[in-house]
Automatic annotation (TrEMBL):
Protein name per the record: Phytocyanin domain-containing protein
Region (Disordered): 104-123
CDD domains: Phytocyanin
Ranges for domain Phytocyanin: 5-103
Amino acid sequence: MAFAKDHFVGGSDGWSQSGDYLTWASAETFNVGDNLVFNYGGSHGVNVVSKNDYDNCNTGNALRVYTGGNNSIPLSSAGDMYFVCPTLNHCDTGMKLAIKVQGSSSGTTPSAPSGTKSMPPNGAAGTFGSMTKVVVGFSVVLASMFAFMG
C-alpha cells in the first residue's frame, strides 16, 4: 500500500524569491496522489501555467491561480506541471517550478500502454470487456485533460 506525500515547495525556505526550485525539484519524486504545498508571504502567489507560459514567464493565461500564503495543490494526473509566481518580475528572477508527476504514488507505472487489451484466463471476456471500456474511457478523459493543460 502506498501513501500520498506532501512536498513542501522550497523546503524550509518555502515559496520565495531566494529559492532554487530546479535543485529542490530534482531531489524529489512526485507521484499521482501527492500534494504540492506552497507556503509564502508578501505579494507572492502561485499560478499553474502551460509550458510555453512557464518558459516565457507569462502569467496572463494561468490555468489556475492560488493566493493566501498556504496552498496545497493535489497532483491528480501524471505528466509535466508548471508553476510561477505572478508578481511582476518574480518568475523572471527564478520564482518558477517545473515538475514531472509519475503515474502512481507507489512509483510504478503500468506495464502496458492505456487502451491495450489482453484476453483474461478462463474466458471471462464479458467482465473483462466491460472493465476495458471503463479503463479506455478513463484514458480518453485523462488525454483530454492533458491536451487542455498544454
